[in-house]
Design brief:
About 35% of the residues lie in helices and about 30% in strands. The protein is built from seven helices and nine strands, in the order H-H-H-E-H-E-H-E-E-H-E-E-E-H-E-E. Strands 3-2-1-4-5-9-8 form a seven-stranded mixed β-sheet, sandwiched between helices. Strands 6-7 form a two-stranded antiparallel sheet. Helix 4 links the parallel strand 1 and strand 2. The longest helix has 14 residues. It is globular, with a radius of gyration of 16 Å. It starts with a helix and ends with a strand. Bound molecules: S-adenosylmethionine. S-adenosylmethionine binds next to helix 1 and helix 4.
Length: about 210
């Protein structure tokens, strides 16, 4: 069964303020995030446009902007986008759905998606990767993060707000095969342990993948 997008949107609309307060500026506490985002910005360079998909309150877009990347953000939740616009008024943010993108084929130079697939079933991840592949330009770069594992956690409450969504963990094998099936090449998965006391205690993965020329 697919995760209901209305439930995801309602969850983030309902906890938008709390989420922004809890997670703003979190890259500064995570050295590996910083290393990876610097690497991404080095690869993208002056190429445009660059998008942060599932941007939430704009942490990753904001960090890339600081590194000199012209980046925009896209998210399903209108309320979380209000938080992003307030925190990063210089960045363009717009509402959209990763599973049904309104961008032209071959139109985006670089895409980051930090934990944006966390509520997707495997079928939805497959679809998201095909959509991302479609809109990337040839030689375009995709940077993804996710929680490693094989389980799903259902939460009825988060940050003192009522929600009704599943949080998914994925195996590296599944992600690798899904990216390959979508057409990506040069796929590199980088694992790390959680930063204790700073984030949820799960192993994390960063993935670089390229759309072939
Ligand atoms: C776990 S949060 C991550 C937010 C941000 N990237 C970060 O790392 O702080 C997942 C985000 O993805 C967004 N999202 C979930 N499904 C989406 C979809 N189908 N299209 C666009 N955004 C989506 C949610 O609204 C939420 O803001």
């Amino acid at each position: 069964m697919e995760q209901d997008l209305n439930k995801i949107e309602n969850a983030y609309d309902g906890m938008a303020e709390e989420w922004a307060e809890a997670f703003s500026g979190e890259h500064d506490k995570k050295p590996k995030d910083i290393e990876i985002l610097r690497r991404f910005s080095g690869i993208v360079g002056k190429r445009k446009p660059v998008w942060d998909f599932g941007c939430g309150p704009g942490n990753t877009a904001g960090y890339l902007k600081k590194l000199g990347i012209e980046v925009s953000g896209l998210d399903l939740s209108g309320k979380i986008l209000e938080q992003a616009r307030a925190l990063y008024p210089e960045i363009h943010f717009q509402k959209g759905n990763i599973l049904d993108l309104s961008f032209d084929d071959n139109s985006i130079a670089g895409i980051v998606a930090f934990y944006a697939i966390v509520h997707f079933t495997e079928e939805q991840v497959n679809r998201a990767f095909c959509e991302i592949f479609r809109v990337l330009k040839p030689d375009g770069i995709f940077l993804l993060t996710y929680h490693i594992g094989g389980n799903t956690i259902h939460l009825d409450e988060f940050l003192d707000r009522k929600i009704d969504v599943d949080f998914m963990f994925f195996t590296n094998d599944f992600i690798l095969n899904s990216l390959k099936s979508a057409g990506f090449i040069n796929i590199e998965i980088i694992e790390r342990s959680p930063y204790h006391g700073i984030e949820y205690e799960s192993r994390r993965a960063y993935v670089f993948a390229v759309k072939p020329l």
